[in-house]
Input
Amino acid sequence: MIRTWFTLVVATLVTVSTALAGGASSRDPEIEKALAEISVPRIKARIEKLASFGTRHTLSDTTSDVRGIGAARRWIKLEFDQIAAKSDGRLTVEYDSYVQEPTRRVGKATEIVNVIATIKGKRTESADRIILLGGHYDSIPTIRGDETDATIDAPGANDDASGTAVIMELAEVCSTRDWDATLVFAAFAGEEQGLLGSTHFAEAARAAGKNIEAMITNDIVGNTEGGDGRRENRTLRVFSEGMPALDSPLAARLKMVGGESDGPSRQFARYIQETADLYVPSFHVRMIFRNDRYLRGGDHTPFSQRGYRAVRLTEPAENYTRQHQNVRTEAGVDYGDVVAKVDFEYVANVARVNGAVAASLALAPAPPTDATIETRKLEYDTTLAWTSPKDLDLAGFEVVWRDTTAARWEHALDVGNVNKVTLPGLSKDDLYFGIRSIDDKGHRSLVVFPLPAVRQPPR
Ligand SMILES: [Zn+2]
Output
């Protein structure tokens, strides 16, 4: 009996490993259809409109209908409302606001207003799972002068009208379809003054015990001409922390087993790369194994700091003459974050990556829970166990593994609808393992990293 199982497993390993080399799974035609609707002209028009408000500085005018952050957020709300009107009641839109008391960067008490659009999940058992896509709609002028000047032009076409246009486009193409889990599209405010809007949202979500399964911030996703002359229009960076940001029981347990590159946000980065390879194959997602760039921050961080899986997407070749700069020409160099420098085709590809990831997750089952790796005694095989999610369309599970020095998962094995598996001949000492759920149509969940069920006695 054991011998048969062993032979069977080895035979399957070979097949699946070969299959993985050519793609972990096949594309869902429904997701492909949604991605095909992503519109470059619509993205372009929205970036132009956002830039046309002159400045979207957090402290700028809120009463004008044509200039300042008030006009910008009312327009975003109106756009979402118009999408909602075509959505058969799927999309709902709301402001999420609070009053920020004065800080170093916010001189006076200021209302910070996120604009939030939601498509509630159709399946009762998975509607509490939230896939959150964000971008920030506020902008800021010069990086070296007065960052509190709320009157001079700060068009913010790339930082971050591009990310805002991405999430608006996805609200548009996703809202004519049903999803198992809930999709949330967030235009965050106050990013440039210290991640204010996203922190408010993340804090409220944590306090309410909301199940944000994964969060992406799209920030600076539209420039393809680097300040150093490098041109890059086929690559997108995903920044992720390897370990949970704060000291936590999970961080301690990950550290104990060498899981420094297997925290929840890092698993999400792998999911993004794998899903992009499948749906947007001409576009390469490059994983960067750190939370963000030096000297910079983003709206994913308030989420990862609260234990949520959260990553940042950013273009690979940044141009600092076009970020946080007063619009001007100096010594023959054009400065400023203007529409003319945005590559709309590139932004559309970023939207496709977001769409493929959000759609795949929103149709997939929840990941398994309580994943453990058996470490009570010395043995040559690896035994993993987990608890099934409650999804009614759950078909089973896949175990994935990789060499300890590999960045991405290298092998996958369909183990069926079980809650425990022994993998003969695969040493837990030499490999990293993960487990994911699969539904009856082949949608994969995020991978969870199994941890020892009991503390290993020191030897
Ligand atoms: Zn930004």
In short: Residues 1-8, 14-23 have pLDDT under 50 and may be disordered.
